[in-house]
Amino acid sequence: MPKQTVLTIGGVPEHFNLPWHLAIEEGRFADVGIDLRWIDCPGGTGDIARGLAEGRLDLALPLSEGAIAAIARGVPMRILQWYVRSPLIWGIHVPAGSEFQSVDALRGRRFAISRYGSGSHLMAFVAARQRGWNPDEDLCFVEVGDLKGAIAAFENREADGFLWERFTTQPYVDQGLMRRVGECPTPWPAFALAVSERLAEESPDLLAAVGAVINEICSEMEERPDIVAIVASRYGLARQQAGEWFGLTEWASDATLSRSALRQIIGTLDDLGLLERPVTPERCCVSGCRFSD
């Protein structure tokens, strides 16, 4: 076996990241000399950005919009490629016993967010804009850390609304801990594969090896006969829900990026006042990345 280079990768503990766990378990990274170690980041993209900034993570799987917002804040990270090309479907949730029966009933109410700058924070602005609200007047936030913190905030009547990926929250909806009153799909690819600036500058060949392994296993996901059962078992979903999610999910199988999608994210965040400084697609990505348009 070749000499192993230790790398850390972080992501939210959810079903989208199953290909990484399978690749680690099956020795795919070890076969190319990489000892890849997974770190759960339950606090979402804000937690991921902090891990990259502090050097705890070498690679990460942030939401695409969260990655760009973090880069604009000066977090030393770059996008290597897309990870999930399909949109993320955000569920809009309320406490199970609350009087709220629609998304519009949440106008001006308190939204739980994992962290400022996280996906749950950024997408609340996107959802508000889609509904014609004034985000400066119609949104207020309660920082709760993660999904469990949001459930606790609901139970303690400290928050009224919460955005999180709809299949991740499904077990809690089924348990009666929250209700879903709407959805908000992102108009761009859901997740990026991001890397620290240090690793991008020092080890481009290592990153190419990581990308080749994960793209290969992602391209094989549909051919695995037991994949829906694995998703259901590992992530607490009913088989029907796991199958529905799997049918909606498209992982990337190559290293190309779309300038137009990146510009759409940048433009949306800029319009909402969520970029601390101007950025371009080229500034957000690793040097020499491949654009498809």
TrEMBL record:
GO terms for cellular component: periplasmic space. Gene3D superfamilies: Periplasmic binding protein-like II. InterPro entries: Ca3427-like_PBP2 (IPR054364). Keywords: Signal. It comes from the Bacteria. It is found in: Periplasm. Its main location: periplasm. Residues 99-183 form the Ca3427-like PBP domain. Belongs to the bacterial solute-binding protein SsuA/TauA family. This is ABC transporter substrate-binding protein.
